């Protein structure tokens, strides 16, 4: 099989989380194992994995999960898939405990979409907080309960502190770990508690604040490229994608209709 049928790229800022894209016959038929948990979204065809005498067949739309260290072989007809490799250290930093005793096939459109969304972030153009939130969306369903969290201040006040930080420093590329340290919670617990209290996870709230900041800059008459930089977006195209998602229109459309602040 030609090498160009398989590509690999690490997602920036996620400490070794990698994305493999493959189209064609299995890249190797040799027995092997991965040091990371492997989460694979099958786009077309069938991916067949054999281990310990068992055979798993994941079809298009399925997610195949393989635990770290599991010896297995790959076989079968050509297929197309996207696979995310998640090192054990990522689970530890998130306060998560993987619960993947063996290979699993998941038929869940939400989890399938989460894998694809995370894989798309390998190309950049997203904040670190957004990349970390997307990684948690893939990891959390694979895990049992982490260690309990306790201690003052109360959780609502912790969430309020994080919320104020995101509002006052929306352009800062804050990692989830920094926000979790501020709140005295694990990254996973913070992500869940923030979403429960605010209605969206931290990375989405950060995007909302950046869009609001971009709107202020547009009203001040700044050029769109500068608005993107002032609001913390990686570039103007990143701002346009997020702006359209939040506002239902492009920054240019908004700029054409606003009254400038003199």
Q: Major sheet, described briefly?
A: 8 strands, antiparallel
CATH topology of the largest domain, by name, is Jelly Rolls
Mean pLDDT rating: 86
User: How many H/I helical runs?
Assistant: 10
Order of helices and strands: EEEEEEEHEEHHEHHHHHHH
Helix/sheet category = alpha+beta
Helix percentage range? 40-55%
Superfamily (CATH H level) name of the largest domain: Regulatory protein AraC
Q: Approximately what portion of the residues adopt beta-strand conformation? A: 15-25%
Total strands: the figure is 10
Rg of Cα set: 21 Å
Supply the key terms.
262 residues, alpha+beta, Jelly Rolls, Arc Repressor Mutant, subunit A, 3 domains, eight-stranded antiparallel beta sheet, two-stranded antiparallel sheet, 10 helices
Could you describe the 3D structure shown?
This protein has 262 residues and is α+β, with helices and mostly antiparallel strands. The chain has 3 domains: 3-142, Regulatory protein AraC (Jelly Rolls, Sandwich), CATH 2.60.120.280; 150-203, Arc Repressor Mutant, subunit A (Orthogonal Bundle), CATH 1.10.10; 214-257, Arc Repressor Mutant, subunit A (Orthogonal Bundle), CATH 1.10.10.60. The chain has helices at residues 88-93, 109-120, 128-139, 155-168, 176-183, 187-198, 202-219, 224-231, 236-247, 251-257, and strands at residues 6-10, 18-24, 37-51, 54-59, 63-66, 73-75, 79-86, 97-98, 104-106, 143-144.
């Amino acid at each position: 099989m030609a090498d160009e049928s398989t590509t690999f790229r690490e997602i920036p800022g996620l400490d070794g989380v990698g994305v493999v894209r493959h189209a064609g016959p299995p890249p190797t038929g040799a027995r092997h194992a991965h040091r990371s948990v492997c989460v694979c979204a099958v786009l077309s065809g069938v991916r067949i994995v054999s281990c310990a005498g068992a055979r798993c067949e994941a079809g298009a739309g399925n997610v195949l999960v393989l635990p770290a260290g599991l010896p297995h072989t790959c076989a079968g007809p050509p297929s197309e898939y996207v696979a995310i490799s998640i090192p054990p250290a990522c689970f530890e930093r998130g306060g998560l405990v993987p619960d993947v005793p063996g290979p699993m096939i998941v038929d869940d459109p939400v989890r399938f979409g989460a894998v694809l969304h995370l894989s798309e972030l390998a190309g950049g153009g997203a904040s670190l907080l957004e990349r970390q939130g997307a990684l948690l969306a893939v990891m959390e369903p694979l895990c049992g309960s982490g260690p309990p969290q306790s201690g003052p201040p109360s959780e609502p006040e912790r969430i309020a502190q994080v919320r104020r930080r995101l509002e006052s420093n929306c352009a800062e590329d804050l990692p989830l770990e920094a926000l979790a340290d501020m709140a005295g919670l694990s990254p996973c617990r913070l992500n869940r508690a923030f979403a429960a209290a605010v209605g969206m996870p931290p990375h989405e709230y950060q995007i909302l604040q950046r869009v609001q900041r971009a709107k202020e800059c547009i009203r001040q008459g700044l050029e769109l490229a500068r608005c993107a930089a002032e609001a913390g977006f990686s570039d103007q195209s990143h701002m346009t994608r997020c702006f359209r998602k939040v506002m239902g229109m492009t920054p240019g459309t908004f700029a054409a209709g606003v009254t400038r602040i003199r």
